[in-house]
Amino acid sequence: MDLQILEVRSRKKLCLLENVKISATIADVKTLFSKKYPKFYPSRQSFRVEAKGKSLKDDIKLKDVEFAEGSSLLFKDLGTQVGWSTVFYTEYAGPLLIYLLFYVRPSVIYGDVSGGSNSNHLAVHLAAICHSAHYLKRLLETKFVHRFSHGTMPLMNIFKNSTYYWMFAAWQAYLINHPLYTSPGMNQVYGALAVFTLAETGNLVIHLALRDLRPKGSTERKIPFPTGNPFTNLFNLVSCPNYTYEVTSWIAFAVMTQNVGTIVFALLGFMQMAVWAKGKHRNYKKEFGNYPKQRKAIVPFLL
Question: What is the Cα Rg of the chain in Å?
Fold first, then answer.
């Protein structure tokens, strides 16, 4: 078949791909298109049948596409792409280093702190350990655990994501390591530390379970279930227990440090992860007819 490629907004004809097999996939179309326009490498391309429709997945065959306008596909340039792992390394390494700068070298930030240092506050040291452990865990997970279903994302995501994580890390670090910082009672600190540790452990266990659910090099999707590890039992109640555990970690960190920066970060983190969780929950129910009905998205029994 002859396949016409139109620009998504203007509907301007970009090219005609001749003699394309009806059994060809969208990935094949991307390869053919990139030969005519080398600038648009496959991961930068998006094809759809309607301007406001979803991008067609790479494994979809042309014979299964319901074309809206004859034998035409709409092309959208996704912009310069960068690997997911690169984005994750950048957005997680920044908070780790920024926080440690405030903790290890407070004089660089606050000037002479010898007269009012909070260095003897155990809560300050525990907060530095917890914050660093979280981001170090995320960096190690990016290297050894996560398997990305999409290889790239837009370059601008590095700046958007990094700005969010880096600025909040600086705000939290500034308040917690400030010479005038006042620690909450130690019972509160120790209790929050215990919850933080359990939640971080649960988050790691869920990430490992999700990794094992998808064979390496595959984009296959399955319904996640408890694996026998007690931390995975949360799969019986929510679709995204990794988000549930992470939100719990940051709530515990806010309780441990008790300042506006950590509270706002935990609140915004919950709001964003709730959006992601609800989206994944909907996709699970849509994709799997036998998906467990008792599950919520992120908060057991509620949301």
Answer: 24
